[in-house]
């Protein structure tokens, strides 16, 4: 038998725990859309540079093992000349041996607009074939503290000759 005293102590502890818990009612929801410009061509103008590849990458159709470091522009419209909202800084790695699939780890660092000074962290898989890909948002800073959510990616434009691409990111976040 659990005594009445034990139950009331438990109830008091639960109340204390509830008081200390984060106010989930105050949680905000934000949806945003940016365009991510992967510029691998243009020599010194490139914002995506391959820094490593597997010794046997010539034998892999997917470039398995290649590592690309990016400082890509994030704009509010699909054109590279659209308003610059921030930069996508991080890496992507060709992580699929038989199918083209990237491991992506990057921060979206906002430098203009209503999110200036804030950032979100995205880590996830990015397969080449589906028209819509999804990656998780695992955290954030500034107005995006405690952020979690996901982004949906659609290729807006791709130049097969240069490898340059523009990808639309629709981002859905919950945060403090
Ligand atoms: C780099 O960008 C500048 C300024 O937009 C342009 O004039 C130049 O032609 C570009 N260089 C290359 C190699 O594309
Ligand atoms: C890959 O490159 C290495 C070294 O350059 C070469 O010995 C090998 O034959 C190449 N393999 C293929 C499949 O092209
Ligand atoms: C971006 O805008 C410039 C100038 O307005 C235009 O010449 C170019 O074709 C546009 N690029 C794309 C990919 O829409
Ligand atoms: C890789 O692609 C092939 C052919 O498109 C497909 O049959 C296979 O299921 C894919 N494998 C994975 C792990 O997605
Ligand atoms: C963005 O924030 C930085 C640092 O707070 C500030 O210096 C800069 O002027 C801001 N940019 C815009 C366009 O508001």
UniProtKB/TrEMBL annotation:
GO biological process entries: phenylpropanoid biosynthetic process
Record Pfam families: Dirigent
Signal peptide: 1-25
InterPro entries hit by this protein: Allene_oxi_cyc_Dirigent (IPR044859), Dirigent (IPR004265)
Subcellular location: Secreted, Extracellular space, Apoplast
UniProt entry tagged with the keyword Signal: yes
Any one Gene Ontology cellular component term annotated for this protein: apoplast
Chief location: secreted
Gene3D superfamilies xrefs: Allene oxide cyclase-like
Keyword field: Apoplast, Secreted, Signal
Complexes and interactors: Homodimer.
PANTHER family assigned to the protein according to its UniProt record, in alphabetical order: NUCLEOPORIN-RELATED (PTHR21495)
Homology family: Belongs to the plant dirigent protein family.
Function text: Dirigent proteins impart stereoselectivity on the phenoxy radical-coupling reaction, yielding optically active lignans from two molecules of coniferyl alcohol in the biosynthesis of lignans, flavonolignans, and alkaloids and thus plays a central role in plant secondary metabolism.
Protein name (Swiss-Prot/TrEMBL): Dirigent protein
Native organism: Hordeum vulgare subsp. vulgare (Domesticated barley)
